Amino acid sequence: MVQKNTEGSKRMTKNILAGFDIGGTKCAVLLGEAAHGEIHILAKQKFPTADFPAPENCLHEMCRILAELIQKENLTFGQLRGIGISCGGPLDSHAGVIQSPPNLPGWIDVPAVRLVNRLTGLPVKLQNDANACALAEWRYGAGRGTSDMIFLTFGTGLGAGIIAGGRLLEGCSGMAGECGHIRLAESGPYGYGKKGSFEGFCSGGGIARLGRFHAERLIREEHPPRWCPDTSALSGLTAKIIGDAAENGDSEARAVYEESGRRLGQGLAILIDILNPERIVIGSIFVRSESLLRPAMERSMEAEALPQSARCCRVVPALLGEHLGDIASLAIAAEL
Asked: Which of 183, 190, 131, 139 is nearest to 159 (CA)?
């Protein structure tokens, strides 16, 4: 049984935080401490999401693990500021409901905030993972010190978290920032339900699909690339395979990343024109492959964006690295 917070608000502090990171492959429970503009992870425990396919059972297990971590750290529930839940969308952050994310089968209209609050007695806030990462990079990473910032995931998919005027922009139903759904071309790689979408060109799956298109053409022309010598290798192509080849100087692989970079700049120009951010922070693939993406990205931005807005905007890689997902859920709790 999970011990609830029954010790009253007078025992609560502002710096001890809990985070739940819910993913399609794994879930993680974290305890952290916010101090001097940083978040320090005190404890973390994870488990395969598939071990608890029923959403209620999964959330109950996360609360049970949290109780264990609190005890091991010689804390009490009353000392926690609250719990932040980071999860892939779609979700309704205002209602605290997870609404059937594609990587979480069976998680249909799950009232996560209500369930976790009932089990722990603590304040709870739910955010999609892009918004959570935006908060983390804004408060503790590459966006620190800005009032207007955009974070782009650029991982398995493409989503954005938007900081506007010093606050997270959520929209009327919590769906602000779904820039991966923007159509950049009438045809092109499929992503977020559209051919030629921003996500289709600028995501791990999108780069792999771009690589397949490119390789298929070269195979037909009887000049197959070394990273895809025949049609049997098409289905196994990944952004990493193509990126590794590009890093080693393969011109055909570099052409794939150049196209992704060009489309990235096109999409960024739209965001810059509309939101006029001071900084755009990009995670995951951009962190690893910035040198492959940036030249074409900058050329496209220069051609497409309003000069006054582009001049005051810096595009930088995420700073928090492999800890971003962990700090993201704790950053939600820090906003409570």
From this structure: 131
